[in-house]
Amino acid sequence: MAIPYLTAATLPYGSRALALGGVTYIANSFSTSSSLQVIDRQDELGAPNGAVGIRQPITGSASLQLATASTAIPDPGDSFAITVDAVSLTFFITERSMPESQNGFKMVDISFRESV
Question: What is the rounded CA–CA span in Å between residue 57 and residue 116?
Answer without folding.
Answer: 7
